[in-house]
Design brief:
By secondary structure, the chain is of the alpha/beta class. The protein contains 11 helices and 14 strands. It binds guanosine-5'-diphosphate and magnesium ion. Magnesium ion binds next to α1.
C-alpha cells in the first residue's frame, strides 16, 4: 500500500491536489483512499472530497501528529476497504511531520510504502514569508510555513497557472537558494498541469523523511494559537418571493466577512464555504486578505433549502471570528433568508503534543 502525505500551509491547494490525484490514480488502476484532518468536525474538504468517488476518512479534533493512532486507524480502515493508494492531507498549520508521522510509520509499519514528503506552497506566500517585512502573517505563523519547507523531501509550487514562465522560474530560484538540497517542482492542481509528473515522483520507491527540522515547540504552538478557528454548519431557508440566488448570498457573506477582517487587518489563513442546494452546490474560498475570493458554482442551485458549511482560520481570537461570522450571516440573510445555525465550533488550537517524535531519520 502506497501512503502519500501532501502537506503545506493553509490554502496551498492540498485538497484540490487530492481531488485531481484521486481521479488520475483511479484511471491508472489504483483503488484510492483519502484522509482529511482538522482540529474540529464539519470539514468542507471532507464534504468536497466525498464526491470524488474515492473512500474518504476524516481525522477530526486533533492533527495527525498528536493523534497518530487516529491517523493510523484511518489508514487501516481504508486498507480494509480495498485501498492500495492513500493520500493524506494534514492540517495546514501543522509541521514536524517527518519526525512525528514519516519516521514512526517507517519504524512501526514497514509494510506501508511511504512516499517522499511533499509540501505544497502558494507562490504568493513564498515571497511574502521569505522576504516581505510588511507581511500581515504573524512571525510565528511564518515560522511554521518555513519549517514545513525545511523538512520537505520535495517542495511543490502550486497554482503555476497564475504565474508567467518568468515568475515561476523566479519562485523556483528563490526556493532553491533558501533550500538548496530540496527538489522543487511547479504544478497546477487546478488545471492538472504537472500533476502526472508529481504522481510519478511520489509513486517511485524513494527515501521518505530524509530530514528532520529543529523545531521550537513554543514558537510552533504560538504560530497555531494566533489563529482563530471556526467550523460552522447553517441551515438556510430562502423566504423572499424572489427566485433564490445562492451565489449572490455567498458573495454578500464573503464581502461582509472580508470587510470586517480587512478593517482590523486580521490576516486570513483560509476561509472556505460550501453551500449545498440539492443537485447543485457553490464552493467559495479565500486564502489571503490580499487575494480575490474564488467562487465556483457546480450544477443548478434553485432549491429553497440549502446547507452552508463554513471553515475559517483567521489571525485573531475565535471570538472575533465568531462575531464576524454571525454578522456576515445576518447581513447576507437580511430580508431574504432564514438562517439556523446547526453547529458551531470556535477554537484556538491547543499546544501540539505529538504521539511520537523521532529525533533521527529511521
Ligand atoms: N489558480 C489556482 N488556484 C488553486 C490551485 N489549487 C488550489 N487553488 C485554489 O486555492 C484555494 C485553496 O485550495 P485548497 O485545495 O482548498 O487548499 P488547502 O487549504 O491547501 O486544502 C481554493 O480556492 C482553490 O480553488 C491551482 O493550481 N491554481
Ligand atoms: Mg484542505
Amino acid at each position: 500500500m502506497k501512503l502519500i502525505l501532501a502537506g503545506g500551509f493553509l490554502g496551498a491547494g492540498k485538497t484540490t491536489l487530492l481531488w485531481e490525484s484521486a481521479k488520475r490514480l483511479t484511471q491508472r488502476g489504483f483503488t484510492v483512499g483519502l484522509i482529511t484532518n482538522d482540529q474540529a468536525p464539519d470539514l468542507v474538504d471532507t464534504a468536497i472530497l466525498s464526491r470524488s468517488g474515492s473512500n474518504v476518512r476524516e481525522v477530526a479534533g486533533s492533527c495527525f501528529c498528536c493523534n497518530f493512532n487516529g491517523f493510523n486507524d484511518a489508514v487501516k480502515s481504508l486498507i480494509d476497504s480495498g485501498a492500495d493508494c492513500i493520500i493524506a492531507e494534514p492540517v495546514g498549520s501543522c509541521t514536524d511531520l517527518s519526525a512525528t508521522i514519516v519516521q514512526p510509520i517507517k519504524a512501526l509499519f514497514p509494510t506501508y510504502s511511504i512516499a517522499p514528503l511533499s509540501v505544497l506552497v502558494d507562490p504568493v506566500r513564498v515571497r511574502e514569508v521569505l522576504h516581505d517585512k510588511q507581511s500581515l502573517m504573524h512571525p510565528d505563523a511564518a515560522y511554521i510555513f518555513r519549517l514545513q519547507l525545511q523538512e520537505a523531501d520535495q517542495i511543490v509550487i502550486n497554482k503555476s497557472d497564475s504565474l508567467t514562465k518568468q515568475q515561476a522560474d523566479g519562485v523556483i530560484a528563490e526556493l532553491k537558494t533558501e533550500f538548496p538540497d530540496t527538489p522543487v517542482v511547479a504544478i497546477s492542481a487546478l488545471t492538472g498541469e504537472g500533476v502526472e509528473q508529481w504522481l510519478d515522483s511520489v509513486l517511485e520507491e524513494r527515501p521518505a523523511g530524509s530530514r528532520i527540522a529543529v523545531v521550537d515547540y513554543d514558537r510552533y504552538a504560538n504560530g497555531e494559537a494566533v489563529l482563530g478557528w471556526l467550523n460552522a454548519v447553517v441551515r438556510l431557508r430562502w423566504t423572499a418571493s424572489l427566485e433564490p440566488d445562492w451565489e449572490h448570498f455567498v458573495e454578500t457573506l464573503f464581502a461582509s466577512l472580508c470587510n470586517e477582517f480587512r478593517e482590523n487587518a486580521f490576516e486570513i489563513g483560509h476561509v472556505k464555504i460550501l453551500l449545498d442546494a440539492g443537485e447543485g452546490r457553490i464552493a467559495a474560498s479565500l486564502t489571503a486578505l490580499s487575494d480575490a475570493v474564488q467562487i465556483r458554482k457546480l450544477g443548478e442551485t434553485h432549491r429553497l433549502d440549502a446547507l452552508l458549511t463554513m471553515n475559517a482560520r483567521v489571525q485573531t481570537s475565535p471570538r472575533d471570528v465568531e462575531g464576524a461570522f454571525r454578522n456576515a450571516v445576518g447581513t447576507a440573510s437580511h430580508a431574504l433568508v432564514a438562517p439556523t445555525i446547526k453547529s458551531l465550533h470556535c477554537i484556538k488550537p491547543g499546544r501540539p503534543v505529538p504521539t511520537y517524535r523521532y529525533e533521527s531519520v529511521v
